[in-house]
From TrEMBL:
Function: Polymerase that creates the 3'-poly(A) tail of mRNA's.
Protein family (similarity comment): Belongs to the poly(A) polymerase family.
Annotated residues for binding of ATP: F91, G92, S93, D104, I105, D106, D159, Y229
Protein known as: Poly(A) polymerase
Domain Poly(A) polymerase RNA-binding: 359-417, 421-489
EC class (word): transferase
Gene Ontology MF terms: ATP binding; metal ion binding; poly(A) RNA polymerase activity; RNA binding
Poly(A) polymerase central domain span: 211-355
Binding site for Mg(2+) 1: D104, D106
A Pfam family: PAP_central
This enzyme's EC code(s): 2.7.7.19
Annotated keywords: ATP-binding, Magnesium, Metal-binding, mRNA processing, Nucleotide-binding, Nucleotidyltransferase, Nucleus, Transferase
């Protein structure tokens, strides 16, 4: 491959970090990576590829027939009727060339000015599709942020968007990459065109498309295995990962996928968020469309992981990311970096990097959100709405508990085969790591859950049968259908990278604690003016050691007191009021299908401070919040040229290699302060309810955190 330096072309807004080409080891490792991706089934067969091309050809003919029909109906003259045309474009993973078997195809239909979105696209075209036997599972979504129709055509999943251009005739050679295509276009058309324009621009801005595609396949697969591939859950989606990988390709233009994957983790493990990731300079355009600019738009200053699209109008594609999900992803970047370094030393392989994250082993406590509907169509609508609101539940819980209670949302839903019209979502719960816990401390999230349910139940298309319940569940009570094959594993995973690292950290922590305890005991023994008998002193010292060891053992666990009550019995806290805000019949479960009894005993759930019972990334990533730059943005609207200078200055952008100076750590050891900036409505803050109980001499004293599940609504 000709180097970037030789052909004189530069990609990106800065100079590359390295122009070095691949070594012999890189070539071997890249072949191993490509074989691994093929073995796990990430590439479609030639037959399926041909079938997709055929389906796209059929779809193109359908929209051309549709536009002729409505043009004739609207009385266009013969010349316009003859020239009437609509055109199909693709975008997303299919256009990027990284789609896998069974993946849907993101498509865009571009039509003329007389073909309206509401009356013609969601009218006549929808009717035509519904009458075609080869079209199945048709579901229009006209009220979405980007309106679309989803369906299957000859078994291939299609998502079809529509762009209505202010043109009488759509030429067959239409170039939608030109900014002039946006002139006089409505807002929904601009958003619909954005997917195609961004995808095409990405392919123009990477130095080697094949290396980009292989690396992107690798990172998409890794993100899905590690549970951080989901835009709606607050992680990153397909376009986000594509932009991140494209930037790495720009910084290492002559590298092969093996090195690009390694540098991906190194760069983003050190990236100083909220510095934006940019593939090119931002063009403000001439059509007055709003672009991402924290200097002018206050809302843009709340984005903590900005990844900017390269096509006008430039937007932040990752506005859903929160402080909690950024913390989780940063930890995963650190893990990936460590494994890639181990691979260079032949101490790990690609299987190690792609080990799935054991979500249901990582925590002792979870929130389970169960939803149901009367039929399949209602459940699909209800799921879409609830999924879009789950991120708000995470943000509110962490905000109302002052980030002391952390949530980790699972990016997917789970369904019990015996209950086809139900599905469940799960969130891992843990106390903030590295913060001393005060005995008797409690967190009451009843009001938070109540607010969440009120928000969900405000769904404008809500109909009877759409139900939701939220309950606290222990790890040992997780339903079997969340495990592969519906079979609960008899023991936790062993021998994996994560379990080994947890074990190493646990042993290190225990050794340090014992060493500290021994030192303290010796100092205490020396300072005592007790008996002069060496035997007495020895016995006393042994007894002190035993007490300290017990204390160490006692301090390893934090417990959660979970009083669970039924709504029929009323709330035990008058200030909270009823905790059942659902307009439908609402049952709270204790991890099973039956309602919780009216007067259940108090359940005590243990959170372990040890990494073995928490996220494997927590030993290497303290809870992350926005950096000093974000605090400056919050304090003043005068962002000035700060971001522009950070973007254009080579040192500020290349915060991604070993040559970049390390972060200035804050008091908590993190590169970020404790406070987090979240894209959430402003609500009055309140202190979590605290209940202090008399201390009782126990073998394992506990600190209690109070969660409250929701009960059954009386008379609903």
């Amino acid at each position: 491959m000709a180097s970037v330096q030789q052909n004189g072309q530069r990609f990106g807004i800065t100079e590359p970090i390295s122009l070095g080409g691949p070594t012999e080891l890189d070539v071997i490792k890249t072949r191993e990576l490509e074989k691994h991706l093929q073995d796990v089934g990430l590439y479609e067969s030639k037959e399926e590829a041909v079938r997709r091309e055929e389906v796209l050809g059929i779809l193109d003919q359908i929209v051309k027939t549709w536009i002729k029909t409505i043009s004739r109906t609207k009385g266009l003259n013969d010349e316009l009727l003859h020239l009437a045309n609509a055109k199909i474009f693709t975008f997303g993973s299919y256009r990027l060339g990284v789609h896998g078997p069974g993946a849907d195809i993101d498509t865009l239909c571009v039509g003329p000015r007389h073909a309206t979105r509401e009356g013609d696209f969601f009218g006549e075209l929808q009717r035509m599709l519904s009458e075609m036997p080869e079209v199945t599972e048709l579901h229009p979504v006209p009220d979405a942020h980007v309106p679309l129709m989803g369906f299957k055509l000859n078994g291939v999943s299609i998502d079809l968007l529509y762009a209505q251009l202010p043109l009488w005739v759509i030429p067959e050679d239409l170039d939608i990459s030109q900014d002039s295509i946006l002139q006089n276009a409505d807002e929904q058309t601009v958003r619909s065109l954005n997917g195609c324009r961004v995808t095409d621009q990405i392919l123009r801005l990477v130095p080697n498309i094949q290396n980009f595609r292989t690396t992107l396949r690798c990172m998409r697969f890794w993100a899905k295995r590690r549970g951080v591939y989901s835009n709606v859950s607050g992680f990153l989606g397909g376009i986000n990962w594509a932009l991140l990988v494209a930037r790495i390709c720009q910084l290492y233009p002559n590298a092969l996928p093996n090195m690009l994957a390694s540098r991906f983790f190194r760069v983003y493990n050190q990236w100083r968020w909220p510095n934006p990731v940019l593939l090119c300079s931002m063009d403000e355009g001439s059509f007055g469309l709003q672009v991402w600019d924290p200097r002018r738009n206050p809302k843009d200053r709340l984005h903590i992981m900005p990844i900017i699209t390269p096509a006008y109008p430039c937007m932040n594609s990752s506005y859903n990311v929160s402080a909690s999900t950024l913390r989780i992803m940063t930890g995963e970047f650190q893990r990936g970096k460590e494994i890639c370094e181990a691979m260079e030393a032949n101490k790990a392989d690609w299987d190690t990097l792609f080990e799935p994250f054991a979500f249901f082993e990582a925590y002792k406590n979870y929130l389970q959100i169960d939803i149901s509907a009367a039929n399949v169509n209602d459940l699909r609508k209800w799921k879409g709405w609830v999924e879009s609101r789950l991120r708000q539940l995470t943000l509110k819980i962490e905000r109302h508990t002052y980030d002391m209670l952390q949530c980790h949302p699972h990016p997917h839903d789970f369904q019990d085969a015996s209950r086809p019209l139900h599905c469940s979502y799960f969130m891992g719960l843990q106390r903030k790591q590295g913060v001393p816990a005060a005995e008797g401390e409690q967190f009451d999230i009843r009001r938070t859950v109540e607010e969440f349910k009120h928000t969900v139940n405000a769904y404008t298309l809500w109909i009877p049968g759409m139900e939701i319940s939220v309950s606290h569940i222990k790890r040992r009570s997780l339903p079997n259908y969340v495990f592969p094959g519906g079979v609960r594993p008899s023991h936790t995973s062993k021998g994996t990278w994560d379990s080994n690292r947890r074990s190493e950290h646990r042993n290190s922590s225990t050794s340090s604690a014992l060493a500290a305890a021994t030192t303290t005991t010796e100092m205490s023994s020396e300072s005592k003016a007790g008996s002069n008998s060496p035997v007495d002193g020895k016995k006393r010292k042994w007894g002190d050691n035993e007490t300290l060891t017990d204390q160490l053992r006692k301090s390893k666990h934090i417990a959660v007191s979970v009083p669970v009550e039924n709504c029929e019995g009323g709330s035990p806290n008058p200030s909270v009021g009823s905790i059942c805000s659902s307009p439908m019949k609402d049952y709270c479960t204790n991890g099973k299908s039956e309602p919780i009894s009216k007067d259940p005993p108090e359940n005590v759930v243990a959170f372990s401070k040890e990494p073995a019972e928490s996220l494997p990334i927590e030993k290497i990533a303290t809870p992350q919040a926005p950096s000093q730059e974000t605090e400056e943005l919050e304090e003043s609207f005068d962002f000035g040229n700060q971001v522009v200078e950070q973007i254009s200055h080579k040192v500020a952008i290349l915060t991604a290699t070993a040559t970049i100076p390390p972060f200035e750590a804050t008091s908590n050891g993190s590169a970020f302060p404790n406070e987090a900036v979240e894209e959430l409505e402003v609500l009055p803050m309140r202190q979590p309810d605290a209940a202090h109980r008399p201390s009782v001499q126990q073998r394992k004293p506990i600190i209690k955190l109070s969660f409250t599940s929701l009960g059954k609504t009386n008379g609903k």
